[in-house]
Amino acid sequence: MKRLRATAVRLDVFAVVETLLTVAALTLVAITVGSQLGPMLGLHGILGLIAGWSIALVYDALWIGSLRMSEVAIRQRSRIGMAVMLGLSLAALGVSTSTLLILGHAKVFAFVPVAAAAFMGLRLFANNVLADHATADRIAEQSAADRNARALAAADARHLRSAAVTDVLTETAGHLGEMARQIARAETLTVAEARINKARAKAEKRLEKSDREHGEKAAAFAARPLTLTVSAPGTPALPTVTGRPAASTNPTTHPALGTAAPQPVTDTDTQVNTHADTMTGTADTPPVHPVTLADLAAVASVPTPVPGEPLTDEQLDVVLRYLRYTDDPPRSYRQARSDFRDRGFVGSEERVRRVWADLLTNEETPVSE
Fold first, then answer.
1. Which of 140, 192, 316, 341 has the most crowded CB, counting CB atoms within 10 A?
2. Which residues cross the membrane (predicted)?
3. Last residue of a domain, which of 129, 158, 181?
4. Residues 6+ apart with CB under 8 A from 28
5. Tens digits of residue pLDDT in 281-296
């Protein structure tokens, strides 16, 4: 059973059909021509039959052999051989077919040689022009690999195109988000600015109303000089005056004998000296002379700074030192800078700040602004 199956697998049905058609074509031509060609040549009996069959077999062998030789010419790639052999095959095949049409009793079988030749030509073409099974399988594998590569390339191209579109959409979304953020920020700041302006307008209205109602009295109060007087120790206190002479008060009758007259004091209840006391002095305290800008310039050995003229760093240090220590407690940077501008001195903000920092650094105890 296994041998039969193996034989059936190896059996070439195409070759079997070709062989059967070839045998049928030889038989038909031999029978048709062999029985009638002898009498046509003037030969009768067995001699005529032999002569007719021989001629018929020669014609059949001619086109069959020509096709076989054409296979050799095809393998050798000989164009002349292929042309000659195929031409003989066609001529012999035409004679055989014509003979069957003319002399044959059953003309329906006249094209059997043509069918046999067609099958034989197909076999020759398949064996010599087409590739064998192994080569065909390899070609099929290569074709499949090419198709797969083209499919992968197309898929990669689609992926790259999709990635590019996604990147563009993502970037566009980012720009749109930033635009929305900027718009929201602008709207929020606009609303906040409007509220601030509204609040400022209300405050300005309240200030204007307060100025109309109380501005004149407030200015008069601010311009009024206020002094506080205290009596010497051991004497009755005198009432505080507000710039007007006290009514029915005789300062010579109230102080006790041997006591000094009351002196004006500051708002911090500390007694101050008058200008006459400062200039006159006493036996224990010598007269105090205020330090001028020219004095500080002379000590520093620099020309006296002049408002409106450019100052060197040394002159700028003298001016700032003078402005800082002409008041007690010493002035801050902002106060000294304001007084510096008000007096008309010239100097950039950067130089003023740098010289002020050096001034504080040179002090024994740094003073914050």
1. 316
2. 12-34, 40-59, 80-102, 108-126
3. 129
4. 100, 104, 109, 112, 113
5. 444 454 555 788 888 8
